Amino acid sequence: MTTFHEELLPGTRRALLHRIAVAQAEGRSPSLVAAVVRDGRAVWHGARTSVDGHGPDENVQYRIGSITKTFTAVLVMRLRDEGALDLEDPLEKHLPGTGAGEATIAQLLAHTGGLAAESPGPWWERTPGSLRPDLADVLGDRPVLHPGGRRFHYSNPGYSLLGALVEELRGASWDEVLRREVLEPLGLDRTSTRPRHPHAGGWAVHPWADVLLPEPAEDFGRMAAAGQLWSTAGDLARFAAFLAHGDDQVLCARTLREMRTPAAPADPADLADGGSYGLGLRIENQGGRVLVGHSGSVPGFLASLALSVSDDVAAVVLANCTSGPMVTQVAADLVGIVAEAEPRIPEPWRPSPHVDRSLLELTGPWYWGTSPYALRVTDDGLLSLAPLSAGGRRSRFRTNGDGTWTGMEGYFAGEILQAVRRPDGSVDHLDLGSFVFTRQPYDEGAAVPGGVDAEGWRGIG
């Protein structure tokens, strides 16, 4: 067996360098750094800078803005996995008296709690956090603008509440919990709440002239959990690998799949753009490729992390300007360049180490009315039911250990699949949430709802 860990091809590397060079030049960013991850490890770093001499490398810190929210979401999901909270718990159960306690933890993670987008008062990203010492200062007099659960409405104060929730349940500051439970286990020693040398300075670039203005780098205080972190292309590359594969020291792969699953109703504009939001992660359809990750923007800095799970390719892009290069698009393009130029080589097919003969009896073609479906046993021991035509409902099913299976996705998510047997033990039909699947179209020998016409199939003469 061979494992695909070769370096990127020269043509691919040049295409990546060209893409970030165009982004830095046309976006007029003082500097821009990027990294690409494949198969769980960084395979490329690149940088462009307006300063002569040695440019920034993968160890130079940039502010990453709202990518911080994904780190906060990881801390909350750890608490859920430990049983310290349930995602459907109202915030009030664990953090009383905020004025926004009817929102559930899941709603806060997915930005569906109805909270305001920003904190009241002066622009919180350019003013010291000491102006907002308490949660009441972060939320203001009117923290809730929409009914909970009805719509996606991005909320920075919502993640401030999640940071306070972590502090309440852990009995320590948000940044201390983050360092102990995520940064140290994942080896992210260049990610911090305060800048550490070497780090980039944040700049505003004049929209109509090639001149710069330094941006302040404030401590966000109570808003830290929404956007405080500084990090590097190298550290975020390792974080992207974690988001793809999991790490049992921090979060298992199953919980990360849950975070990558859409959890928020999409607005019409989001539907048109092919975007949605999970639990601390943005999900987008870019030219048929599903990308998960997050972007970040604070005065002086832009950041983006994009991951294609199916390709096992991720990209990170960091720039030190308030506006300019479209770093989210650049990150998506870097993923696409690698995925298309060097498509993933699949693992060799191997027969299953064991077989459940009772499942073999159920595999093969089935008909829902006249629509043909196929039931298969997948290589991970799940059942897969899918139409034989291009369209139609499909799902994988996990065993319940009692001869039934539960749907995992799509229309059949949560629905129960079971084989209904005749008195002699043979299978009459499959029942899937009251849908009946038979071995023949409207099988006259099976229990078809409504019965089958006694004269059977016929032509028109």
Description of the molecule:
By secondary structure, the protein is an alpha+beta fold. 27% of the residues lie in helices and 22% in strands. It has helices at residues 10-27, 67-82, 91-94, 105-110, 135-139, 156-170, 174-186, 224-227, 233-245, 253-259, 268-273, 327-341, 357-360; strands spanning 31-38, 41-49, 62-63, 203-205, 212-214, 230-231, 275-277, 282-286, 289-298, 301-308, 313-319, 364-368, 371-377, 383-387, 395-399, 404-407, 416-421, 427-432, 435-437. Strands 12-13-14-15-16-17-18-19 form an eight-stranded antiparallel beta sheet, with no helix packed on it. The longest helix has 18 residues, at 10-27. The protein is globular and about 85 Å long. The chain starts with 9 loop residues before the first helix and ends in a 24-residue tail after the last strand.
